[in-house]
C-alpha cells in the first residue's frame, strides 16, 4: 500500500510539468525559456546531491571516457524530449499533451531491436538483439486509440497546423527520451546509478539549453519573474521530487512483479491530475465526452500494458527504468 501511495504521489508531482508549462505559455512566456530554465535549475541540485553521496568522481571518469556520447545522448534524451514538450504546450492543453505523452510506451517498445540484452544460457550469458514485445504492443494500441479520440476532438476545433504542432513534437519526444536514456544505460553498463546518469545527461545537454537561452534573449528578452518561478517549481516537482518518489516506490516492490506493475500503472493517473490542475488553476474548460472517453482508454491501456509486460517475467530484481518517466 505504501508503494502505491508513493506512486500516486509521484504521478501528482509529474503533473506539474504539463500544468505549469501550459500556464507559462498562456502568460506569454517563451517555450525556449520554459525548457532551458528547468535544466539550469536542476543542475546545481543534482550536482550537490551526487557530490554529497560521494558519487561525483566516478561520474567524471565515465564522462571523460566518452564525452561526445554524453553530449549526443544527453541532447537527444533530454533536449529532444523536453524542448518539443514545451513547444507543444503552446498549441494544446496540458491534459492533451500528458495523455499523448503516454504513447512513449509504444515508442519504447519499437526501439527494442536497437539494443542488446543479456540472456542466460547453459554456457553463460550471451547478448541477443532485443525483440518487440508483441503482447505489450497490443495493449499499446488501446492507448493509441484513446489518444486518437482526444486528438480527433482537438482537431475538430482547430486548423490543421496547431494540431500538427501538438502531435508531432510529442511523438518526437516520445522516441527521443527512451532512446537517449537507454543508450546511456548501455554505455554505462551499470557503473553509475540513476542520479549520476541524470546529472551526466543534464551536463551533456547544457550546450543546447545555452543556445536556446541565447536565442530567447534576442527574440523575447529575459524571462519574466513569473516564468522563472514556475520553471523552478517544474524542476523541483517533476525533475527531483517526482523522480525520487517513483524510484523509492519501485524499490519497495522490486521483487514482486504484480506490485511493481501496479506501481507503474499509477502513472496513468497523471492525466487526471493535469486535467484537474488546469481546470482549477487555469480555468480550462472541461473536456468533451469524446475526450474523456479517450482519456479513459489511455489509462486502461497503461494499466493493462503494465500488467502484461510483467506477467511473463520470472521473479528477479528489476531495476527501475528512467526511460519510462519524466526525469
From TrEMBL:
Alphabetically ordered keywords of this record: Membrane, Transmembrane, Transmembrane helix
Coiled-coil stretches noted in the UniProt entry, renumbered to this chain: none
Positions of transmembrane segments: 31-50, 70-90, 96-116, 136-152, 158-177, 198-220, 232-253, 265-283, 289-308
Pfam family, one: EmrE
Record's protein name: Multidrug resistance efflux transporter family protein
Species this protein is from: Metabacillus endolithicus
Amino acid at each position: 500500500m505504501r508503494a502505491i501511495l508513493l506512486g500516486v504521489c509521484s504521478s501528482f508531482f509529474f503533473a506539474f510539468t504539463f500544468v505549469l508549462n501550459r500556464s507559462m505559455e498562456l502568460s506569454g512566456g517563451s517555450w525556449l525559456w520554459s525548457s532551458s530554465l528547468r535544466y539550469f535549475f536542476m543542475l546545481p541540485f543534482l550536482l550537490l546531491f551526487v557530490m554529497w553521496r560521494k558519487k561525483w568522481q566516478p561520474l567524471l571518469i565515465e564522462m571523460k571516457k566518452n564525452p561526445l556520447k554524453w553530449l549526443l545522448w544527453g541532447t537527444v534524451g533530454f533536449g529532444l524530449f523536453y524542448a518539443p514538450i514545451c513547444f507543444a504546450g503552446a498549441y494544446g492543453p496540458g491534459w492533451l499533451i500528458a495523455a499523448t505523452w503516454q504513447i512513449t510506451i509504444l515508442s519504447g517498445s519499437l526501439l527494442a531491436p536497437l539494443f542488446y540484452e543479456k540472456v542466460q544460457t547453459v554456457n553463460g550469458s550471451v547478448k541477443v538483439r532485443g525483440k518487440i514485445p508483441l503482447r505489450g504492443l497490443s495493449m499499446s494500441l488501446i492507448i493509441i486509440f484513446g489518444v486518437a479520440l482526444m486528438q480527433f476532438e482537438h482537431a475538430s476545433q482547430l486548423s490543421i497546423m496547431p494540431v500538427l504542432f501538438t502531435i508531432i513534437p510529442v511523438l518526437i519526444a516520445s522516441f527521443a527520451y527512451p532512446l537517449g536514456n537507454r543508450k546511456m544505460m548501455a554505455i554505462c553498463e551499470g557503473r553509475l546509478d540513476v542520479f549520476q546518469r541524470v546529472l551526466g545527461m543534464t551536463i551533456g545537454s547544457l550546450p543546447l539549453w545555452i543556445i536556446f537561452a541565447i536565442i530567447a534573449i534576442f527574440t523575447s528578452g529575459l524571462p519574466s519573474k513569473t516564468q522563472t518561478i514556475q520553471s523552478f517549481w517544474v524542476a523541483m516537482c517533476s525533475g527531483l521530487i517526482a523522480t525520487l518518489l517513483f524510484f523509492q516506490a519501485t524499490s519497495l516492490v522490486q521483487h514482486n512483479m504484480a506490485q511493481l506493475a501496479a506501481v507503474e500503472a499509477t502513472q496513468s493517473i497523471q492525466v487526471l491530475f493535469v486535467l484537474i490542475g488546469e481546470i482549477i488553476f487555469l480555468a480550462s474548460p472541461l473536456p468533451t465526452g469524446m475526450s474523456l472517453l479517450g482519456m479513459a482508454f489511455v489509462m486502461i491501456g497503461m494499466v493493462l500494458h503494465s500488467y502484461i509486460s510483467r506477467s511473463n517475467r520470472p521473479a528477479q530484481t528489476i531495476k527501475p527504468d528512467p526511460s519510462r518517466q519524466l526525469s
